[in-house]
Design goal:
Distance between the termini: 14 Å
Order of helices and strands: HHHHHHHH
Largest sheet: none
Oligomer: single chain
Strand content: under 5%
Radius of gyration: 17 Å
Number of strands: 0
Shape: globular
Protein backbone atom coordinates (compact mmCIF):
# COMPACT_ATOMS: atom_id res chain seq x y z
CA UNK A 1 0.00 0.00 0.00
CA UNK A 2 1.45 3.35 -1.02
CA UNK A 3 1.15 6.36 1.33
CA UNK A 4 -1.62 7.77 -0.91
CA UNK A 5 -3.49 4.50 -1.48
CA UNK A 6 -6.27 3.82 1.07
CA UNK A 7 -5.89 0.58 2.99
CA UNK A 8 -7.97 -2.52 2.37
CA UNK A 9 -10.09 -4.08 5.10
CA UNK A 10 -7.39 -6.70 5.76
CA UNK A 11 -4.79 -3.98 6.14
CA UNK A 12 -7.02 -1.90 8.43
CA UNK A 13 -7.77 -4.86 10.69
CA UNK A 14 -4.12 -5.95 10.66
CA UNK A 15 -2.88 -2.48 11.61
CA UNK A 16 -5.26 -2.46 14.55
CA UNK A 17 -3.93 -5.84 15.67
CA UNK A 18 -0.36 -4.50 15.61
CA UNK A 19 -1.36 -1.46 17.66
CA UNK A 20 -3.12 -3.61 20.26
CA UNK A 21 -0.01 -5.74 20.69
CA UNK A 22 2.10 -2.60 21.04
CA UNK A 23 -0.18 -1.17 23.73
CA UNK A 24 -0.01 -4.44 25.67
CA UNK A 25 3.79 -4.46 25.41
CA UNK A 26 3.83 -0.88 26.67
CA UNK A 27 1.86 -1.89 29.76
CA UNK A 28 4.41 -4.59 30.54
CA UNK A 29 7.45 -2.40 29.90
CA UNK A 30 6.21 0.71 31.74
CA UNK A 31 8.13 1.37 34.93
CA UNK A 32 5.54 3.37 36.88
CA UNK A 33 1.98 2.61 37.93
CA UNK A 34 0.85 5.84 36.29
CA UNK A 35 2.28 4.81 32.91
CA UNK A 36 0.95 1.26 33.19
CA UNK A 37 -2.51 2.66 33.91
CA UNK A 38 -2.36 5.02 30.93
CA UNK A 39 -1.43 2.20 28.56
CA UNK A 40 -4.08 -0.05 30.09
CA UNK A 41 -6.61 2.67 29.30
CA UNK A 42 -5.26 2.95 25.77
CA UNK A 43 -5.46 -0.82 25.20
CA UNK A 44 -9.00 -1.19 26.51
CA UNK A 45 -10.17 1.92 24.63
CA UNK A 46 -8.72 0.69 21.34
CA UNK A 47 -9.83 -2.92 21.70
CA UNK A 48 -13.43 -2.01 22.60
CA UNK A 49 -13.72 0.22 19.50
CA UNK A 50 -12.06 -2.39 17.30
CA UNK A 51 -14.34 -5.25 18.36
CA UNK A 52 -17.59 -3.32 18.00
CA UNK A 53 -16.56 -1.84 14.64
CA UNK A 54 -15.82 -5.33 13.32
CA UNK A 55 -19.26 -6.51 14.41
CA UNK A 56 -20.98 -3.54 12.74
CA UNK A 57 -19.06 -3.47 9.45
CA UNK A 58 -16.90 -6.50 8.63
CA UNK A 59 -19.19 -9.24 9.92
CA UNK A 60 -22.27 -8.06 8.00
CA UNK A 61 -20.08 -7.88 4.88
CA UNK A 62 -18.97 -11.48 5.45
CA UNK A 63 -22.58 -12.61 5.86
CA UNK A 64 -23.60 -10.76 2.70
CA UNK A 65 -20.78 -11.97 0.46
CA UNK A 66 -20.07 -15.45 1.86
CA UNK A 67 -23.61 -16.65 2.52
CA UNK A 68 -23.99 -19.63 4.89
CA UNK A 69 -20.22 -19.95 5.29
CA UNK A 70 -20.08 -16.30 6.31
CA UNK A 71 -22.78 -16.90 8.92
CA UNK A 72 -20.79 -19.81 10.36
CA UNK A 73 -17.61 -17.76 10.50
CA UNK A 74 -19.22 -14.71 12.09
CA UNK A 75 -21.04 -16.89 14.64
CA UNK A 76 -17.60 -18.10 15.72
CA UNK A 77 -16.20 -14.57 15.69
CA UNK A 78 -19.03 -13.23 17.83
CA UNK A 79 -18.63 -16.10 20.30
CA UNK A 80 -14.95 -15.22 20.57
CA UNK A 81 -15.81 -11.58 21.22
CA UNK A 82 -18.74 -12.20 23.51
CA UNK A 83 -19.22 -13.79 26.90
CA UNK A 84 -22.35 -13.99 29.00
CA UNK A 85 -22.19 -11.43 31.80
CA UNK A 86 -24.77 -11.02 34.61
CA UNK A 87 -27.29 -8.48 33.27
CA UNK A 88 -27.64 -6.94 36.73
CA UNK A 89 -24.15 -5.49 36.36
CA UNK A 90 -25.20 -3.63 33.25
CA UNK A 91 -28.89 -2.68 33.61
CA UNK A 92 -28.35 -0.06 30.93
CA UNK A 93 -28.25 -2.95 28.47
CA UNK A 94 -31.38 -4.82 29.48
CA UNK A 95 -32.36 -5.20 25.85
CA UNK A 96 -32.97 -8.84 24.88
CA UNK A 97 -30.05 -10.42 23.10
CA UNK A 98 -30.78 -11.61 19.59
CA UNK A 99 -30.66 -15.43 19.49
CA UNK A 100 -27.82 -17.23 17.75
CA UNK A 101 -28.50 -17.97 14.13
CA UNK A 102 -29.45 -21.65 13.69
CA UNK A 103 -26.63 -22.44 11.28
CA UNK A 104 -24.84 -25.79 11.87
CA UNK A 105 -21.11 -25.34 12.29
CA UNK A 106 -18.68 -27.25 10.13
CA UNK A 107 -16.67 -30.00 11.81
CA UNK A 108 -13.54 -27.84 11.89
CA UNK A 109 -15.40 -25.10 13.75
CA UNK A 110 -17.48 -27.39 15.95
CA UNK A 111 -14.40 -29.16 17.30
CA UNK A 112 -12.76 -25.98 18.48
CA UNK A 113 -11.96 -25.40 22.14
CA UNK A 114 -14.34 -23.16 24.13
CA UNK A 115 -14.34 -19.70 22.55
CA UNK A 116 -12.10 -16.94 23.88
CA UNK A 117 -13.97 -14.43 26.02
CA UNK A 118 -12.36 -11.19 24.91
CA UNK A 119 -15.12 -8.78 25.97
CA UNK A 120 -15.54 -10.47 29.36
CA UNK A 121 -11.84 -10.21 30.20
CA UNK A 122 -11.65 -6.70 28.77
CA UNK A 123 -14.56 -5.66 30.97
CA UNK A 124 -12.64 -6.84 34.04
CA UNK A 125 -9.31 -5.41 32.93
CA UNK A 126 -10.55 -1.91 32.15
CA UNK A 127 -11.22 -1.17 35.83
CA UNK A 128 -8.50 -3.31 37.43
CA UNK A 129 -5.40 -1.54 38.72
CA UNK A 130 -2.09 -2.74 37.26
CA UNK A 131 -0.81 -2.80 40.85
CA UNK A 132 -2.99 -5.80 41.74
CA UNK A 133 -1.70 -9.36 41.59
CA UNK A 134 -4.61 -10.31 39.32
CA UNK A 135 -3.80 -7.78 36.61
CA UNK A 136 -0.91 -9.37 34.70
CA UNK A 137 -2.42 -12.89 34.62
CA UNK A 138 -5.68 -11.41 33.34
CA UNK A 139 -3.83 -9.35 30.72
CA UNK A 140 -1.96 -12.45 29.56
CA UNK A 141 -5.23 -14.42 29.32
CA UNK A 142 -6.85 -11.59 27.36
CA UNK A 143 -3.91 -11.51 24.95
CA UNK A 144 -3.97 -15.29 24.49
CA UNK A 145 -7.68 -15.20 23.69
CA UNK A 146 -7.23 -12.18 21.45
CA UNK A 147 -4.46 -13.89 19.48
CA UNK A 148 -6.63 -16.99 19.07
CA UNK A 149 -9.32 -14.75 17.63
CA UNK A 150 -6.81 -12.93 15.40
CA UNK A 151 -5.57 -16.27 14.05
CA UNK A 152 -9.14 -17.17 13.12
CA UNK A 153 -9.61 -13.84 11.35
CA UNK A 154 -6.30 -14.01 9.49
CA UNK A 155 -6.61 -17.65 8.42
CA UNK A 156 -10.37 -17.99 7.92
CA UNK A 157 -12.18 -14.66 7.63
CA UNK A 158 -10.01 -12.27 5.71
CA UNK A 159 -8.87 -14.51 2.82
CA UNK A 160 -12.45 -15.59 2.11
CA UNK A 161 -13.83 -12.06 2.30
CA UNK A 162 -11.07 -10.44 0.24
CA UNK A 163 -11.58 -13.10 -2.46
CA UNK A 164 -15.17 -11.90 -2.88
CA UNK A 165 -14.37 -8.17 -2.85
CA UNK A 166 -12.73 -6.00 -5.47
CA UNK A 167 -9.89 -3.86 -4.14
CA UNK A 168 -12.13 -0.79 -4.32
CA UNK A 169 -14.87 -2.56 -2.34
CA UNK A 170 -12.31 -3.67 0.23
CA UNK A 171 -11.01 -0.12 0.62
CA UNK A 172 -14.56 1.21 0.98
CA UNK A 173 -15.24 -1.36 3.72
CA UNK A 174 -12.02 -0.32 5.47
CA UNK A 175 -13.16 3.30 5.42
CA UNK A 176 -16.50 2.28 6.90
CA UNK A 177 -14.67 0.31 9.62
CA UNK A 178 -12.50 3.32 10.49
CA UNK A 179 -15.44 5.75 10.52
CA UNK A 180 -17.46 3.43 12.75
CA UNK A 181 -14.65 3.38 15.33
CA UNK A 182 -15.16 7.14 15.71
CA UNK A 183 -18.72 6.71 17.01
CA UNK A 184 -18.65 3.39 18.89
CA UNK A 185 -18.52 2.88 22.67
CA UNK A 186 -14.98 2.98 24.04
CA UNK A 187 -15.44 0.46 26.84
CA UNK A 188 -16.40 -3.18 26.94
CA UNK A 189 -20.10 -3.87 27.54
CA UNK A 190 -20.30 -7.68 27.34
CA UNK A 191 -24.04 -7.78 28.08
CA UNK A 192 -24.84 -5.52 25.14
CA UNK A 193 -26.36 -7.07 22.01
CA UNK A 194 -23.73 -8.07 19.47
CA UNK A 195 -25.81 -8.29 16.29
CA UNK A 196 -27.22 -5.57 14.04
CA UNK A 197 -29.54 -3.83 14.53
CA UNK A 198 -29.72 -4.26 18.28
CA UNK A 199 -26.00 -3.50 18.56
CA UNK A 200 -26.32 -0.28 16.55
CA UNK A 201 -28.97 0.98 18.97
CA UNK A 202 -27.04 -0.07 22.07
CA UNK A 203 -23.88 1.56 20.73
CA UNK A 204 -25.67 4.86 20.18
CA UNK A 205 -26.81 4.80 23.81
CA UNK A 206 -23.48 3.82 25.32
CA UNK A 207 -21.04 5.87 23.23
CA UNK A 208 -21.83 9.34 24.68
CA UNK A 209 -21.46 8.06 28.25
CA UNK A 210 -18.20 6.28 27.45
CA UNK A 211 -16.78 9.34 25.72
CA UNK A 212 -17.66 11.58 28.65
CA UNK A 213 -15.80 9.15 30.90
CA UNK A 214 -12.85 9.32 28.50
CA UNK A 215 -12.54 13.03 29.32
CA UNK A 216 -11.84 12.05 32.93
CA UNK A 217 -9.44 9.24 32.05
CA UNK A 218 -5.65 9.45 31.70
CA UNK A 219 -4.16 8.34 28.38
CA UNK A 220 -0.66 8.49 26.92
CA UNK A 221 -0.13 11.82 25.16
CA UNK A 222 -0.01 12.02 21.38
CA UNK A 223 3.78 12.17 21.26
CA UNK A 224 4.12 9.02 23.37
CA UNK A 225 1.73 7.20 21.06
CA UNK A 226 3.52 8.49 17.95
CA UNK A 227 6.92 7.34 19.26
CA UNK A 228 5.58 3.86 20.00
CA UNK A 229 3.92 3.63 16.59
CA UNK A 230 7.15 4.63 14.84
CA UNK A 231 8.89 1.81 16.68
CA UNK A 232 6.46 -0.64 15.02
CA UNK A 233 7.58 0.35 11.51
Amino acid sequence: MSPTDPQTISEAIGNDHKSLDQYADNIKSATTLEDKTKWRNMLTWALARHAISEELTMYPAMEQHLGEEGLQLTNTDREQHQAVHPPSLLPFFSLPLSPPLPIPLSKSLANQAPPPQVKEDLYKLQSLSPSTTEFMPLLDRLLTDLHDHITHEVNEDMPRLEEKLSREESKALAQSFERTKMITPTRSHPSAPNRPYFENFAAMLAAPIDRFRDLLTAFPDKEEIAVKHRSML
